[in-house]
Amino acid sequence: SIKNEAFVWGSNSSHQLAEGVNEKILNPKKTSTFQDVYKMEAGQYCTFIISDSGIVTAVGKGSYGRLGLGDSTNQSIPTKQANN
Questions:
Q1: What does the angle CA 2 – CA 7 – CA 24 come to, to the nearest 5 degrees?
Q2: Distance of alpha carbon 6 from alpha carbon 57, whole angstroms
Q3: Among residues 42, 39, 37, which one has the least CA distance to residue 13?
Q4: Are 46 and 57 a contacting pair, CB within 8 Å?
Q5: For 14-51, what is each residue's pLDDT tens digit?
Q6: DSSP assignment, residue 43?
Q7: Which of 18, 32, 83, 84 sits CB 3.0–4.6 Å from 59 for a disulfide?
C-alpha cells in the first residue's frame, strides 16, 4: 500500500488535531500522530481517520456522541470504538 503523510492545521480548540497541545496551528504541520492514513476527514471539532487496514479512529470533541465511540467523552488521541 502507499504510505500517505498527513498534515494538520487549524484552531485545535478541541484537540481535534491530536498534537498533544490545545494551541492553534497556523501553518500546515506534518504529523506523526496519524499513521497509515488511507482517508482522513476533519471538521470544526473532530477528525476521523481510516487506516490502510480499515480501522476507523476519531479524535476531538465527543459531546452528543459525535465521535461515534458510544459516549460523549472528548478524545485527545485517535481512539477506535470498543468492540461490543
A1: 165
A2: 15
A3: 42
A4: no
A5: 989 988 788 899 999 888 887 778 888 988 999 999 98
A6: -
A7: 18
